[in-house]
Amino acid sequence: MNRKRKLNEDKEIEGKINSELRNFSNISNDTEVAILFIKNKLLENRQNNLFPPVVFVHQLYDIIENKTILNRQIEILRNEKKIVLIHLGNENNMRVVIFFDDLKNHVISKRDLAEKSLFQKFFDKVLSSTSDIGISRLDLMIKFKFSEKDIRCLVNAGLLILNETNIFWFSFPSAGIFMRKFIKGRQTLINIIKKRKFGEILQSELEKLPTLKSVQLPVKYLIHDLVGGNFVKWSFITDCELETLIVYLAFADVNFAG
Description:
By secondary structure, the chain is of the alpha+beta class. The protein folds into 2 domains: 3-91 and 175-251, no CATH class; 111-170. It contains 11 helices and 9 strands. A hairpin with a 2-residue loop joins strand 5 (160-164) and strand 6. Helix 1 (3-21) crosses helix 2 (30-43) and helix 9 (175-194) crosses helix 11. The chain is elongated, with a radius of gyration of 20 Å. The model is unreliable at 1-10, 240-246 and 254-258 (pLDDT under 50).
């Protein structure tokens, strides 16, 4: 991308961040703003409440290109107990962040009074005190005083996934359903772009598509996956007569198998 187009892209991203800053207070850093921005895209026209507002780390690359800064600021937010970092697989693009309060409220609001104390303890004692992506059964039982019955309840709720013998990864309710919808949504948009001449489409045209019924995820939310994951790239063209910036989405040089 040449210098002029790069400057236009930076202005576009700066406009996104400044817009979010006007709507929120107590912001720690730019990464928190970016998470809020993409989270709000997910909440637009969302058609179910099976899972909390989830943001993939690679979606944030669409807004904050410097991965070193991004990862450093994610750690700051984790240490401040503002977000939870969850690994949905061994691949780097399977990392998601969820605001701590969003996850907590999503889980506890669906529980009866007898269960709420257990989940409250899990959030207040476990998730708020560890920076790891998982925890051992031994720590749950010895350090945090959870019984086998408690652990089964946490697993059934989708908060713990057995990764290997006696080691659990942290997760969120309906994570498997969410991933299937997310990947299907990605492939749907890729197929739409592939069918266009030269493999490109106006961003504004793509954004006008309604929420994909088959995946129930907003198109604007999925676009950040395509760009942040390097499935497509931004292409900026200035219309001199109209003095406007035309934004295209075009295929990047990557494998689109899924």
